[in-house]
Amino acid sequence: MSTSDEPLQTALAAEHAAVYLYAILGGRTSRTTAPALYADLRRAYESHRASRDQLQSLIADAGQQPVGPEPAYATPHGIDATEGIRRAALALERSCVETYAWLVSATDDAQRSWAINALRSGAVRELGFRGTPETFPGIHELADHS
Amino acid sequence: MRSQSRPIRRPLSRPVSRRSVQGLLAGAVLVPLAGCDLRPDATSPTPPPPTADERLVDATAAAIRTARDVAARVPEGRALVGVHEAHLTALGAPSASASPSAPAAPAPADLRATEGGLESTLTDAATRASDGALARLLASMAASVAQHLAALPNPKASR
C-alpha cells in the first residue's frame, strides 16, 4: 500500500473537476431532444461522483485530509450545441482515463487495482461519446487519436 | 509507494514519458540478446535469471499471441489483430505464433471468450507488475481490449 496519499489526491482533484464539468454538460443537454446523450452524461456524472466519494474515503482512511474542489473550473468552448457537448465529454473522459493510467503506475496493491478498474470503466465510457476503441487508452504518447 | 515521476496536480499531464516505455521495451529486448553470444567461453558469467517482470511479460505475450491467432480467424476480430500486434511490439515480444497450423475457424462467441480471458490476464498482470511503467502499459492494454469487446457487434441484436 502506498505510504503517500499524493497520487490519490491528484486523482481526487481530477474527479472534482469531472463532477463539476459533467454537471455543466448535463445542464446544457436537453432530455427531450437528445435523450441518449443526456442518459450517457447522467451515467458518467454518477460514476465520477461515486469515484470521487471512494477516493475521499481511501484518503480519509489513510488519515489524510482529502483535497476539496476548486470554486469553479474553466468550461470547454463550443458546448452550446449537442455535438460540442459530446466532444467536450469525450475529451473530459479521456483526460480522466489518462489520470487513472498514471495512478496505476504510482500505486500498488489495492489502490492500483482500484485505478485499473477506473481506467477500464472510463475507457469504455468514452465509447458512449462516440469515442472509438484505442490501442493504448490513457497513454497519450502512444495515442492513436488526435 | 513507487518512486515515480508524477504530474504536478494536473490531471491532463502526461504521466510517463515515451522514453520510459521505450526503455521498458529496450530492456525486454536486450535481456534475451545478452545470452546470444555464440562464442563458447567458460569464463562467461551465467546470465542472471529472468526477473519477475520479465517472466510476467513473457506469459502475457503468450496470452496475447493466442488471442491474436483466434481474432485472425474470425471476421469480427480483424480489428483486434492489429491491436494485439501493437501490444506485442510495445512489450518487446516476438509476434510469431508457437503453433503455425491453423485450426478450424472459431465462432464469434469464442472470440468474445478469448478476448474476455485476455482482458483478465492483462488486468492481473498490471496488478502484479513491479515496475510502475509496465503496470500502466498493461492496464492500458486491458482497457483497450475492454473497449474493443464493448464495440463488437452484439450477437443478440443481429438475430
Characterise the protein shown here:
The complex is a heterodimer of chains A (146) and B (159). By secondary structure, chain A is an all-alpha fold. In chain A, α1 packs antiparallel against α2 and α3 packs antiparallel against α4. Chain B is an all-alpha fold and 159 residues long. Chain B has a domain of 102 residues. Chain B has five helices and no strands. In chain B, α2 packs antiparallel against α4. Chains A and B meet through α1, α3 and α4 of A and α3, α4 and α5 of B. Chain A: It comes from Nocardioides terrae. Chain A: This is DUF4439 domain-containing protein.
Short summary:
The complex is a heterodimer of chains A (146) and B (159). Helix content of chain A is 63%, strand content 0%.
Characteristics of this structure?
heterodimer, A: 146 residues, mainly alpha, Ferritin, 4 helices, B: 159 residues
